[in-house]
Known about the structure:
Blueprint: E1 4-11, E2 14-19, H1 23-50, H2 53-64, H3 70-109, H4 121-124, H5 132-141, H6 144-158, E3 164-166, E4 180-182, E5 185-190, E6 198-203, E7 206-207, H7 208-241, E8 244-248
Parallel strand pairs: 1-8
Antiparallel strand pairs: 1-2, 3-4, 4-7, 5-6
Helix pairs in contact: 1-3, 2-3, 3-6, 3-7, 5-7
Amino acid sequence: MNYLTLIKTFDDIGLFYTTIGNRDDYKFIDGLIRVRSRIMYHNRNLNDVFFDSKFEQHAKKMLTDPLNANDSHEVVSDNLTKIDAELVAMMQAIRTQFDVFAQIINSELFANPIDPFIVDFKNIKKQVPDTGLCASIENIISDQNFIYLDDFVNSNKHVDLPSINGFGWSKDMEYLIEGFNVSEFKRKIRERRSSSTATTYTVNPKELLDLMVILPMWANDQLKQLSACLKLEQVKKLDSLGEWNEVIL
């Protein structure tokens, strides 16, 4: 009979099991915990800037008294730069956590893991048996939130930098801060079979508040679901290997 010593590690998304015999497994769990800390860090900074009352005051002055708003222009411009930087960093971290989760699946479930340098969330599904975990991965990949997130991150890295736009710059006495969105952006994806053919995909504008509030909540819910599905598959694997012990860190 095989005896395995297991480590339980807790995160806000659930419980993972990993064998103590392969420390490479644990590094991916540690990586997921750290990248989720980055998400919270950038989201907190983003909220601090976006909801700063001085930001609203200066934005209002730009609308109501533009001829005497030089200082306000500078403040608003500086805040928009901070928002842009924190948003891109947060979006990158949210997208990265899915790829790190794919590394955990690869190292935890497969008898012969594939090369970690070619593992990502979208291709790991091909390796996962037709289980609840596979269905969960497929649901996430086909979700419009993930599609937007994936396109946003790839556009920032390779093609086009989506900009933050405000409505009502010179009308209606509205605060600029009440109408920000991330502009439409495009990506050209070449078909593998025909490298000469390029298809342009246009991604519609999205409200900045949706990305700050709703998207992180959605991603967190998906990670919880993935964790629950992975745990079931890990337990099946352990049951097939024999008796096992637990160590709680």
